[in-house]
Amino acid sequence: MEQVSLPPLSRVAVCGGTHGNEMSGVYVVREMQRQKVEKVGSASVTTVISNPRAVEVCRRYTDTDLNRCFTDDILSSLVTDASPYEVGRAQELNIQLGPKGSAEAVDLLCDLHNTTSNMGLCIISYSFSDWVCLHIYKHIQKKITSMPVRLILLDIPLSEAYSQESLGKHGIAIEVGPQPHGVVRADIYNAMKEAVDQTLDWVKDFNSGSVFEGGKLEVFTFMSVVDYPRHPETNQIMAAIHPQLQDRDFCLLQKGDPIFLSFSGETVHYEGEEPLYPFFVNERAYYEKNIAFRLARKKMITIPCLQVNKD
Amino acid sequence: MEQVSLPPLSRVAVCGGTHGNEMSGVYVVREMQRQKVEKVGSASVTTVISNPRAVEVCRRYTDTDLNRCFTDDILSSLVTDASPYEVGRAQELNIQLGPKGSAEAVDLLCDLHNTTSNMGLCIISYSFSDWVCLHIYKHIQKKITSMPVRLILLDIPLSEAYSQESLGKHGIAIEVGPQPHGVVRADIYNAMKEAVDQTLDWVKDFNSGSVFEGGKLEVFTFMSVVDYPRHPETNQIMAAIHPQLQDRDFCLLQKGDPIFLSFSGETVHYEGEEPLYPFFVNERAYYEKNIAFRLARKKMITIPCLQVNKD
């Protein structure tokens, strides 16, 4: 089997409150700050509340979604008094944790998120060949048994990667649900805290020279989105997610399966030819983004054996 | 058994969006408006989106909680440009549906609410002797089998009753959960819609002269509130609802039972001497009101046989 060696991860950042009403990440970061977690083995750990203004008012964002502001275009745009708060904040974070794509960027950025969807614990990452992220996923999946753990890969070039974890040399989002926005549930908090602890344990072991076995991983790759049926004039939704789809994230959706139940009682069926896996089903923040759920294809990938390159 | 006759209910109002992010009520009202539900038997039906500005931005309220604005004091206060939007809106609603406590008020007001708590379907009302409300509860409880149906009674004088249903001669809030705010779930929408339909069916039968048997009812009466453990300086919460209490609304809480799990892992126990029933456990809107959950006592009450008085 292929064997890869990579440089040590000397700087790690853990960020919460990128969406100000996703409470598990806010409280995990605050608890790490209270416990003064600043080192793990030889690596430094930085903890950040990404959008303090949004956390203060317990909303996703104040002017615009911060977690769509980390593209090269927005990070290099001119900020004026008229700019959305989050554009300026994204540029501050890029200075603190990046610059994105540069040698100065943190080695690993973990960004903490919650969803109202029944997704369990998901690791979301941008690359099919970021062996650090994929090995961290493999480790978390092995260690966490309280809920399903899955991997979602987005295939987007780094320059267009819009979310905060793209600032790091390696980046993962840890997405846990279901949890209503503005609420913290102990079960969801505990799963997220354990995922962060396991990530930091992995970093310590990696930097110490442990050899991580390669192998096969099941991954979900993003394919498309489905919007709610909407009124052509008012744009108001006319249906809810069907009870047979609600809470069934990552259960295969076949042609003819019910996907929506209209407010007057009619069922809408899935018409796609290819069976796919729905996720982010009924995520609260996606109503305004015209997304009722996303669809993924399942694949197997093979990752190599990994160890640190101390040279 | 005692027999009571009461005047017909000639004007009914169904209100949603009193809290602008409690979506089932918004969509039930909109669906009734789309279907042009304006009569049920001999009674008129008025449908109202109570807080349209809050619905527009999908928040509980814009300036202040509308559903705390229906006390006599606030309804009679002088409204100026500096007043919170919701105070003026409460006074508009009082003109449209009240005036509260007057002969002109609607006969029955149903106000539709959602909660993030696992409360099933609850009817909330202000009086132990409002036989109309209590018989409507009895009817709904018999008809709806998809989730538990319970009755919560608040013992507050009408002048201090703060919520919108107090504008009607008879008033109930229909509270259904769990549903994240800003989200509509088909199961929760359907239960609320059925509760409204059953209420209107009952009104039609009552006005037509049906005789409703009396009997015993189990009710929950509000006793006290419990707040989260908070940091004495920052006021930030230091614990979440314990997993053994989360989602266990209306399960008896005994001295020594776990109620909170701190973010560093310590359990906090219930210290009350009297076993009581928790409800509104981890309701999202109550973090800012310093309420982690409410506590109720369970009682049995007897309601008389009821029929319309056509004189």
Automatic annotation (TrEMBL), chains A, B:
Native organism is: Osmerus mordax
What's the family? Belongs to the AspA/AstE family. Aspartoacylase subfamily.
Cofactor binding comment, as recorded: Binds 1 zinc ion per subunit.
Q: Which residues bind Zn(2+)?
A: H19, E22, H113
Location (main, coarse): membrane
> Can you tell me which residues form the catalytic site?
E175 (proton donor/acceptor)
A GO molecular function assigned to this protein is:
hydrolase activity, acting on ester bonds
Residues annotated as domain AstE/AspA barrel-sandwich hybrid: 216-298
Q: Source organism's superkingdom?
A: Eukaryota
Q: Could you tell me where this protein is found in the cell?
A: Apical cell membrane; Cytoplasm
User: Keywords assigned by UniProt?
Assistant: Cell membrane, Cytoplasm, Hydrolase, Membrane, Metal-binding, Zinc
Q: Which cofactor does it need?
A: Zn(2+)
What is the uppermost EC class here?
hydrolase
**GO cellular component annotations of the record:** apical plasma membrane; cytosol
Membrane-topology descriptor: Peripheral membrane protein
Q: Which SUPFAM superfamilies match?
A: Zn-dependent exopeptidases (SSF53187)
Q: What is its EC number?
A: 3.5.1.114
This chain's protein is named N-acyl-aromatic-L-amino acid amidohydrolase
